[in-house]
Amino acid sequence: MGNFNTIQAAKRRRWKSVDLMTNKNPTNATHEGIKIVNADNRCDFSTSSDLCICIVTWNMNGKHSVGGCGGIIGRKKGAVAMRINYKGIRMVFISCHLSAHARNVEERNSQCRHISHSVFSKHRSPYSRPDQVTIWLGDLNYRIQGIKTFPARNLIKKDLHKLLTGKDQLLQEAERGQIFNGYCEGTLTFKPTYKYNVGSSNYDTSYKVRVPSWTDRILFKIEDPKEINATLHCYESLDDIYSSDHKPVRAHLCLKLSR
């Protein structure tokens, strides 16, 4: 079943054509940003796909932590990766918890690059074949910025939260060419998943009064669409779960090898 890698986020990361170790893009580099895709109807697990994957990310807001990956990317923050080969589809899953707070955008960007370098380092075995599918999920902790909490909540209350996507740090940083080159994400049709009062679907009423944000995300990347066709069948939050200040996010992705 391929290799299993537990990673501790290295200190540098190199993309294919962008020098992100210095946060600078060479003039001839291109960055696709994050491609937004619409979710198709729910999959019926038909034989038309070689593999259907249900992916869930949820920050359970537990009282205990397994540690901070040696302190490299921060206390109580870290990442884990797993490689799987299923029916000839070579996949890597990356789950991470990045630094909190709206002001720490560059720190999160750096952590993404560190994690990526650990997983996709050129120092991997020369006998290993490149991954065809990458699925990256977790509490990425990118926030909504440029709007105060109560105007943002009013938009959400009126089901106008799609207007907040233009203020989403993750999409902004990808568009700037800093992170997630060539990844895809479903349309953010669901409400921001953080921060809730535990035990309810009411946004934070503590003294912190956080701006609601889509901190919990699932991204995927197909290295060669000519080899593998990917269909996203759902991308949604699970709003009926109340035991955390985050709402879980679920995606349903189906893959088919081109033959």
From TrEMBL:
One of its GO terms (molecular function) is phosphatidylinositol-3,4,5-trisphosphate 5-phosphatase activity. Residues 1-259 form the Inositol polyphosphate-related phosphatase domain. InterPro entries: Endo/exonu/phosph_ase_sf, IP5, IPPc. It holds the Pfam family Exo_endo_phos2. It comes from Rubroshorea leprosula. GO terms for cellular component: plasma membrane. One of its GO terms (biological process) is phosphatidylinositol dephosphorylation. PANTHER family: INOSITOL 5-PHOSPHATASE, LD06095P. SMART domains: IPPc (SM00128). This is Inositol polyphosphate-related phosphatase domain-containing protein. SUPFAM superfamilies: DNase I-like (SSF56219). Belongs to the inositol polyphosphate 5-phosphatase family.
